[in-house]
Write the structure tokens for this entry.
Amino acid sequence: MASGTSRDVLWRGLAVLGRAIREQPRIFAVAATSSVLFGLVVVASAYVVGTVVGDVVVPAIAEGSVQVGVLALAAAALLGLSVLRVVGIVGRRLGAGYMQYRLQAGYRRQVTRRYLDLPLSWHHRNATGTLLSNANSDVEAAWHPIAPLPFAVGTLVMLVGAVASLFVTDWALALVGLGVFPALFALNVAYSRRMAPRQARAQRLRAEVSGIAHESFDGALVVKTMGREAQETERFAERARDLRDALISVGRLRGVFDPMLETLPSLGTLAVLVVGTVRLRQGAVSVAELVSVAFLFTVLAFPVRAIGWVLAELPRSVAGWDRVRRVLDATGEMPYGSTTLDPSDPRPATLTFRDVHFAYEPAEAHLPGTEVLGEVGFTVPAGRTVALVGPTGSGKSTITSLAARLVDPRSGAVEIDGVDVRGLTADSLARTTALVAQVPFVFDDTVRANITLDRPGLGDGEVWAALRLAGADGFVAALPDGLDTRVGERGTSLSGGQRQRLTLARALVGRPRLLVLDDATSAVDPRVEAAILAGLRASEPGTSTASILVVAYRRATIALADEVVYLEQGRVVARGTHADLLATVPAYADLVTAYEQAEVEQAQQRGYEDVAPPLATGLELEVDQ
Ligand SMILES: Nc1ncnc2c1ncn2[C@@H]1O[C@H](COP(=O)(O)OP(=O)(O)OP(=O)(O)O)[C@@H](O)[C@H]1O
Ligand SMILES: [Mg+2]
């Protein structure tokens, strides 16, 4: 990322700074003007100090008399300059701070917004740890040089002013300046050039360390139960050691260069005194001028370092910016269409898959993606329930992702009420279809917030109705604060089945016209599952409000469907009622029986006494709510 020569990095870094200035021109103008003011004040005060020493102090020592008028004038001038200096410093610091933090906040927002706009396929290819560091440390790194930037700009002006005033004073002293300032500058450049690769490496390792940490925390359960704590700690420690070494090498370099940068201006002052004394003897300069110049060298040493700071930060900034850009420029966005479906239409929607082919994007762009679905065609008629059944990996979840338009088909079409979903607006899509995913996601918030997600017009009445449909009203009512109970990060304070029912209620509360359930009730007691599904089919007697596409494993659930679509390896192998398929498709019958066997064993382990023995059709379970 931070590849290329250091000259390349310098130019690209300057381009990043240019972008910052273009984005915050006014604040930058305030900060830079304040800094220039500061620089000019510093140069001016050197001359006032020189004048005081040359015209007041020296005569006072020589003659024993003080020129009160000159002294008062000098004091007033110094006071005035001090006030201007304070104004300059405050303006610069405030401006730089505003500019840096505004840019950081703005880009953080843009990056996270972009994450949400990018399609699932992009997220599949990018690790969570990387996304976190893109939005955090990379954005920070990109705008880090903004803090010293106005100072550096002021310093440049100050240097030009200083050299000009040196020439006005004396050519010999000016030559000393021309020797020292460029040397200081060159030293700074050499410093940042050596710093570049070290900083880039440290930045990369930071991202890796945070990635590993994230994965270990996320997988804490696996790590603990498999007794892999030591290995996992070692994996982390290894990267942490690399980061430590990288940072130490940064520190070592700093240790070598910082003293040199401190010493060079002092040597400059020494040279000024040596050359200056000779010139004083020759009568070419006055005491006042010599003191001014020596003072100037002393006060310039510090600001010149601001240029070094900016240069030293550039490589890290370029590396950070490259990563931020990678997110902002990422393609593969799925544009929405402009067709809207009537939001007040209470009728269930019709979902149609027309000859859909689909492949996940390969990890590396040049490889062809293997086809996961081929020639998939089926319809969920309005108000009906269709069950997707198939062995693991046969493409059921992929079909639900297509139905909710998380991904688009490679060819063919997914239609809702005869409209290609790619033609629908984001809002229409969100209002019409609700997907409950295989892995439930719960936010660290209250039960109410998890269900409404701040969608407008959802009162507690609607929330309780949805909870009731999802079979979740009982346990929510028993929570200490009811709807106001916080559920912990990812719902850790809830059981798996409770989390599933909350996410189901979240989908139901928006009154979707098409409900897509990807194994959404697998952790729920089978009787409750069947009851929930039956309730969804006919929540109002005789009518149903939503069409349902459900990935199902349990016979009782499957048997509730009007039609079963049986998949194998991404192809629809058979369609029909559960009873038909049981009778005519041996593979289907085997699969359902195998599921059932597993279910019974599981149930016996968990102690659902009432599930065994195997259910004949499951239909007898149908609903005694
Ligand atoms: N993000 C992905 N990238 C690449 N391939 C994927 C991805 N997700 C799934 N696949 C592949 O697509 C195929 C279908 O996966 P899918 O998740 O749709 O199966 P499924 O029928 O839902 O399985 P299960 O019953 O285990 O949930 C599998 O071969 C799987 O390896
Ligand atoms: Mg699945």
About this structure: The mean pLDDT is 84.
